[in-house]
Protein 1
Amino acid sequence: MSLRKTVVWGWLAFAAFLCVGCGGDDDVWIEVDEPGWVVANPQSHRTYEDTFRPIALPSPNAQRTASGAPGRAYWQQRADYAIDVELDAARNEIRGTATVTYTNQSPDPLPYVWLHLEQNLFRKGSLGSVAHRGSGRFNTTGSSSLGYDIEAVTTAAGEPLSLAVYDTVGRLDLPSPVAPDGGKLVFKIGWRFRIPEDEVMRFGMEQVQDGVIWELAQWFPAVAVYDDAHGWNTLPYLGNGEFYTNFGTYDVAITVPSDHLVAATGVLLNPEDVLTPIQRERLDAARRTTSTVTIRGMNEVRDPGSRPKAGKKATWKFRADDVRTFAWASSPAFIWDACSTGGVLVQSFYPREGARTWAKATDDLRFSIEHYSKTWFPYPYPVATNVNGREGGMEYPMIVFCSEREDPYDLWYVTTHEIGHNWFPMMVNNDERRHAWMDEGLNTFINWYASIARYPGRPWPGRWRGVEPSARFPDYGDVIRDPRRQPIETVPDRIEDPQIGTTQYRTVAVGLVVLREKILGPERFDAAFREYIRRWAFKSPRPADFFRTMEDAAGCDLAWWWRGWFLSTDTLDHALESVRSMPDQRGTMVTEIVVKSVGRMVCPAEFEIRWDDGTTSLHRIPVEAWATTDRYVFTLQDRRRAAAVRLNPDGGWPDVNPANDQWVR
Ligand SMILES: [Zn+2]
């Protein structure tokens, strides 16, 4: 809205103000997610009371307190897996058996247990193939030969259990309920599936010069989460919405052809069985340096001497504690290098096609881990691995997949993003299927600062997830002007790419940058954000826990910001209504600046005055200025006259309309 138009609207005063921004078609309802989770309805007209009213959150209880911390009765379930798995490279098939120990720490007896069976997404006619048939993101035609073939489910004693499969979830019926408060269920399950050849869906396979690279994820039946917010979390795996899983210990024995190298979540337990003496020596050297050491070089890849003399198969054993899932990769084509930082073994596996671009990949990974550890919370795991294969960019505990082979900066960005997910959600374990912004958005926020630290002055990367290149950040223009914009709190399976990238990555990141740089200031923000991670590391926060913790630890009511930026599609528009410099009755020069808050979102207003002597001064109107009115008269006694005034002088506020931000005498 232009300045002139604003003045015209101005005399209509309150009544006119109420109507500003009430568009109609572009208004969006927010989905009600959790009990009591009802947010401001953006279709209603804004009132001042609405703007500042506390956002409605679920009632605090013994599990989740009013301060946003886990309560004295907080509980979560645990699932420990011992798995034997074989990659049959010739048949392109996975065969596995697992003993699963499920610990029910809830106060409720559980007569059945739900499993996630994500491979069934690739079956012909799967719910995901219907929901995302138009996305083009993955091949949604499905195949009758894909998906899980579950071979046997039994109790620990070998008694058969029945498993009812419904698309990507399955209900395991039990002879007697799993007892509450620590009761255990041990069951055994066997399965096989053909690895999809055409699909790339957070894992995949790729033929490269020196063989095939297999990346494996969502490769075993996993117990769903039972929690205090939703009971069993049985939302199906449709493709966009990611995961919500239990923490546990994984003991995994992976059998592959003996010419393969295997990278996986966890610590390698039997290097003497699967590595040559020289590789073990190099690995020991890598544990003592922050400089990258080659473990298997490009010229060794085709050399049979780079593998221990053994039979046709080799079994790699890994163990991981306190992880929410397990992923791995296997290939005869891998080059391997590694270094170490703060006791963490940092490594990369890539084929010769990636060698040039991946020369600094391990160092990028090391830098990311050091940056996030120092800035936010220490990396909690002993290993971090980056694998170059077909999957574009995907995160798992201690291991990430990045496909980039052309641009080292794009590889940096995907790497720092995917490893950043080890903070959100691998450690701070949010429900990704409902609240993707809690991991993608918070992670994108920390990636921004890592990228500034690593490559100062570099633009936001361009070719990743449809994000447009931009030379400065926060570049909120595309976020706030996008006509398809949806509230951040929208279930990801109700959004298609590339809109997900805007809604749940960048909008959240920009909102947090504004909160840090402009609203709270870095010191106040960082203390609160670190407190959020500290409280919820290895636990599962809900959106309310994030909002409450940030307010509690920053000591600041932010309802107006959560409502404006996170929970609605409201926009901010500050406008200069008038500027006058004139002597008052006693002859003192007084400058009067009238600022209006035109949009439905409120924010503090900042403006710069350029005086007639050429000097400038910066001023700020706190958000409380809009507590009862949309118009604020700012006066200043000064011997000088104002020559020009500019609202939002550094562009740091997400003002949707810069056209009404300037006044020149
Ligand atoms: Zn991500």
Protein 2
Amino acid sequence: MGKTIGLTYNLKTDWVCGPDDPYDVNAELDKPHTIEKIVQAFEAGGHRVKRIGNVHQLLSQLQLSQPELGQLDNLNVDIVFNICEGTVGRNRESQVPMLLELKGIPYVGSDALTLGITLDKVVAKKLFISEGIPTARYFVAGSTEDLEKQNTIGYPLIVKTIHEGSSKGISRDSRVEDLEGLKRQVHLINAVYKQPALCEEFIKGTELTVAVLGNEPPRAMPIVQVSIDGDTNLGDEFYTFERISSTALQYVCPAKISVELTRKIQDLAVRVYKCVGCRDLGRVDFRVDQKGNPYVLEINPLPSLDPKDSFNIFPKVIGSSYDAVLNQILGFALARYGLEQKTLEEIPLRSR
Ligand SMILES: Nc1ncnc2c1ncn2[C@@H]1O[C@H](COP(=O)(O)OP(=O)(O)O)[C@@H](O)[C@H]1O
Ligand SMILES: [Mg+2]
């Protein structure tokens, strides 16, 4: 039976640009086109969609409820499909799930704790290390002092933000070969992005990203490989913010890698997903070095649903579609809450 789905999201215009903001300040936020595609997918699945908007819009709609009359919320939705990245602070992705949980409103996707853990790449890396999941060696630099002493890894390094996504803060200059470059990039992350810098061993090789769907058990989808200027052997190249909107960057699916490596990456992706308590959907990013050793870069429990990205690419390889996968993800969440009659096995992994 069709459900009423509330949609929470952050449009790029949710960010009011200040004079000191970097050029990529709203990199993670959504385009109206993505929202329309999600709405169309659920409508095609026989559901109604109510556009709620960002956390402030959610909050103001929740505040109209009358708890004294036993009314916990007045959204009048069966479940919320949340893709809010949030705008302020490192708990920003956790805000919508916290409010929904407080009000007892079912929602699709991971909870506040998982979103907090994974937005902070260093916290997530510590968990990966504790479970023996391979991740690139790193150190954290809160200032440009003592960098020489802190860097026991050597060069090249990549210098990144700790709690941003969508390659925000990542440009060609992020790969550094010497102390001078390291100081320059650490200063940039500290001063402009206002957070400690995550300095990681640069993994020369190929880059893979893999969606994981479902809960009992979660399953890894076909692997998507990043190609730059027509080459999947990226070597020293990587996914910069500029490249997101350039034709130089393309996706190859299934990835041109051995059956053995495919299996290894998919198994690792599921381990990563479970390690941070992901639910319903997620996407794990990897680099694989030239010897074939995989390293987890991060997991995204709120992966991009932009139709240009992997959630519109891997479905085609399994004879499915963007719309069918989104409806399937909804089905996983409905099943978790006991709101759906179907068992997980009955939810088709095919397009209608
Ligand atoms: N250790 C690394 N070695 C090589 N390239 C990296 C490394 N870490 C990140 N990158 C490059 O930077 C991109 C963004 O890094 P990632 O950690 O996935 O952060 P984001 O949250 O911005 O996607 C990656 O897709 C990859 O191309
Ligand atoms: Mg990434």
